[in-house]
Amino acid sequence: MPKVHVNEIDIFYEVKGSGEPLLLIAGFMCDRSYWSLLLPHLVSHYQVIRFDNRGIGQSSIPNSPYSTQQMATDTSALLDILGIKQAHIIGHSMGGQIAQELALLYPEKIKSLVLLASLAKGNERFNQLVESWGDVATKIDLKLYEKLILPWIFTDNFYAIPQMVDQLVEWVINYPSAPTANGIYHQSRAIIHHDTTDRMKNIHCPTLVMVGKQDILTPVTFSQKLAQNIPLAELQVIEDGGHGFLIESTEVVTQAILNFLAKF
């Protein structure tokens, strides 16, 4: 799988399927593999592009400040190199923040937008939490770090599945491109400095805002604000989903995405 050099870094990406382009933007600490459960359903309908943001996976991990606008320009440059003039864009969490900036900076490149468990701006509680996640990454090992974060990502039902969390933690720490302290820190700062509160009204593409009802990290109120202020947005709340509903509620989320994209 190839890399491209953009904005003084290397971006690792892959393209699968055929049809209209569909770009997937992952969230905090997540590389392209986070979309793996959705991928088989999406590639049967679309040409799917997924990639590693700066600071994660097999893309460059510069030890310098990141911003969601900067990562949006990375994403735009990748589309340019691939010769893609317009695409459907899906972003999860931080990926949804990047997707907002992409839609604001390069509206001509966006056919539709799907914002999953995302936000325009964090409140004080959210920002304090994410800031601490960036700080503690240099203090403890990755296994303990994952155990601290995962309760914010998954629901009680997920934790009730025997050995599920332990298996997920082991997968992360043994992953060949596991998150690094530098990448975690700089991505965390990009998240808490993101603010489209006064600009999201300028996103004029059809937009689906989706959130899990049990999401305690980016709660329903965050998505409600997006849906209320983006002119062509609609809101869908997944009853049994948490922040990690791409893993917990894969089929429900995928079907909702496909139903939305089929309109365009």
From TrEMBL:
Keyword terms: Hydrolase
Pfam families named in the record: Abhydrolase_1
GO biological process annotation, one example: glycerolipid catabolic process
Signal peptide positions on this chain: none
Residues in AB hydrolase-1 domain copies: 21-249
GO molecular function: triacylglycerol lipase activity
Domain of life the protein comes from: Bacteria
Gene3D superfamilies reported in the protein's UniProt record: alpha/beta hydrolase
Hydrolase as UniProt keyword: yes
UniProt keyword annotation of Hydrolase present: yes
Listed PANTHER family: AB HYDROLASE-1 DOMAIN-CONTAINING PROTEIN, HYDROLASE, ALPHA/BETA FOLD FAMILY PROTEIN
The protein's name: Alpha/beta hydrolase fold protein
Protein species of origin: Anabaenopsis circularis NIES-21
